[in-house]
Amino acid sequence: MKRLFDPGPEPARERLELEAERGRWVLEESPELVLLLDDESRLIAASRRARESLAGLALGEPVPEELLQPEPWRPRRVSIELDGKRESLVYLREPGELAAYEELRAGFTAAVSHELRTPLARLLALLETALLPSVNPDELIEQGKAEVEQIGELIDDVLFLSELESGRAVVTLASTPAAPVVLEVVESMAERAVRAGVTLRSEIDETVEIPLRPRMLRVVLENLAENAIRYAGDGSTFSIVLGRVGDEVVLTAADDGAGVNEEDLQRLFERFYRADRARASRGTGLGLAIVKHIVTSAGGRVEAAGRTGQGLEIRIAFRA
């Protein structure tokens, strides 16, 4: 029989206690709705998600009968025997969870296909134009290169977002001093900002730390700066302000450029959503969706404010 845990060299009692503690954490931190029941369906333990999502759970008491019915929770029971006692692990699925997942997956696939089709169509048109007499091949090559680069950016963003959602890209393990990362991003984006006519500035409390890995903080900042450089407009200023506000660490990314209307403001963090002004840009439409996913995965919150002609402000907050 294959063991789940390596027993190691510890004395038998300590080994059993260690394995029991490991098992408790495996159940506690499961992302699923999991219940551990005795042979009379009384609750022995439950995952954190189950305790937070299900009403009527109490240790030592029978679980609500409706949770064990075929619908709507679709329980899957795994029988186990411990010390001669019969117990059960019960896995529940939230009503509509599978249908919602399938709808999301289908919508995401369709959106990716649509977003790839546009630069591919432009690339095909460039190749067809190259067959015409009296064309400038160097100019067409540069345009074609730009289309290929956009396709590459889109694929990279889709793969990165997929890694975030599958848990393969770890968002937070420890706090990161934010000032060096902010300054690095501002410096690296400076040349692109100049070409777009956007002034970059930063105001940083150098003692502040943010609960993100350095790479994830860099991704957040780069996407915020990229958004301003693409859409704020010539002559605008983009500012990153970082400091403590009450019991929170707050990062504010704001520009005084073109802004967005109220309808667009409500949808800025949706995948592939771009306002009318942004549709002419070569962006992937995933930058702010990635920002939101990283921030919320680390326990923070993100919100946007602004109006047409009055700039855009994105505010990110974490508990200090």
Characteristic key phrases:
single chain; 320 residues; 5-stranded mixed β-sheet; 4-stranded antiparallel β-sheet; 8 helices; 11 strands
Describe what is shown at a glance.
The protein is an alpha+beta fold. The protein has helices at residues 12-28, 48-53, 97-129, 137-166, 178-196, 214-231, 262-265, 287-297; strands spanning 33-38, 43-46, 76-82, 85-92, 176-177, 199-204, 209-210, 237-245, 248-255, 301-306, 312-319. A 5-stranded mixed β-sheet has the order 6-8-9-11-10, covered by helices on one side. It has a 4-stranded antiparallel β-sheet with strand order 2-1-4-3. The protein has a two-stranded antiparallel sheet with strand order 5-7.
What does this structure look like?
The strands form three sheets. The chain has a five-stranded mixed beta sheet, covered by helices on one side. Strands 2-1-4-3 form a four-stranded antiparallel beta sheet. The protein has a two-stranded antiparallel ribbon with strand order 5-7. It is α+β, with helices and mostly antiparallel strands and 320 residues long. It is 43% helix and 21% strand. The protein is built from eight helices and eleven strands. A hairpin with a 2-residue loop joins strand 3 and strand 4.
